[in-house]
């Protein structure tokens, strides 16, 4: 080793530069199986000019993670730009975002509760709270961990001069215009940069995923951050399925719960009750199933690294090429209703009966027999 050279680098072992960066931010770091982003503490985050927290879900992968941000009443964030991709889900409050592209053009749009958008990569932007009395709180789902661990250089991430004009899309994409791309059930897509309200947007039927099920994938700013919204109609629930880690599932509206378990450990079921702002990230190959227990349709939002346009990994390419809703008996990752654990339907039906909400699953299950415990 040359005289005076440091051997610090040779001593690095199993290091995570993203987690080190998070530790140095001086904001709360929340780690759990599921997190209610509406209830966690946030603290001043100088880099972004907002209050915030780092959220590390137990089932996260090596590619993406979540920040929870809060804009105080009447405030604005710092002007920002970064080379990582970022999808913003507004949980509460209203305001606006201004985006300045490399050619000097400015695009502004107004957002509110349940808005969804993505700033085109490395574009300069700023958030504004539109209320003088109430804070605005939103989730930022991003692929910062992958890039920070790859490049290990904060300056490269936040002060990179590279521009990506091909990511902007038509001007109308900043105000909610978009294009429907019809593929197959479960893969239909709406391409845009901004969705004003994902609770009222028309979804597409996906019967193979469950009775009355519907879904729609969002392509936002042509990024590699995949997201989709799914709906469970009243009196029903979805089929259980499993996949690789890293899919962040936000409960948006309606009443319900999710059950999670590993194959072979069906006696260790984890239950997560829904509430607006709750996010859970199922760990690697952990079965999970979503249930509606209310009088209105329930919707959730799922975000992950990789899209049906740009799957990014061979495993996701394999899943989205036709295996996403294929039964485990045929080599897929989905449990058909007839193959699910008997207690699954009994738990749900008992809750529905207690609430006085009729089941719409009677054509699939002999529910009198279920109620009798046979």
Topology readout:
Layout: H1 17-23, E1 29-32, E2 34-36, E3 43-45, E4 50-57, E5 65-71, E6 86-92, E7 95-100, E8 106-111, E9 116-118, E10 124-129, E11 136-142, H2 144-151, H3 154-158, E12 179-181, E13 189-192, E14 194-195, E15 204-205, E16 214-220, E17 225-232, E18 240-241, E19 248-253, E20 256-261, E21 270-273, E22 278-280, E23 287-292, E24 298-305, H4 314-323, E25 334-335, H5 342-355, H6 367-371
Parallel strand pairs: 1-4, 13-16
Antiparallel strand pairs: 2-22, 3-4, 4-5, 5-11, 6-9, 6-11, 7-8, 7-10, 9-14, 12-13, 15-16, 16-17, 17-24, 18-25, 19-22, 19-24, 20-21, 20-23
List keywords for this structure.
374 residues, mainly beta, Jelly Rolls, 2 domains, nine-stranded mixed beta sheet, eight-stranded mixed beta sheet, 6 helices, globular
What does this 3D model show about the protein?
The longest helix is centred in the C-terminal third of the chain and has 14 residues. Strand 7 and strand 8 form a beta hairpin. By secondary structure, the chain is mainly beta. The protein is built from 6 helices and 25 strands. The chain is 13% helix and 33% strand. The chain folds into 2 domains: 154 residues, Jelly Rolls, CATH 2.60.120.10; 182 residues, Jelly Rolls, CATH 2.60.120. The strands form 5 sheets. Strands 2, 12, 13, 15, 16, 17, 19, 22 and 24 form a 9-stranded mixed beta sheet that branches. Strands 1, 3, 4, 5, 6, 9, 11 and 14 form an 8-stranded mixed beta sheet that branches. The protein has a 3-stranded antiparallel beta sheet with strand order 8-7-10, with no helix packed on it. The protein is globular and about 65 Å long.
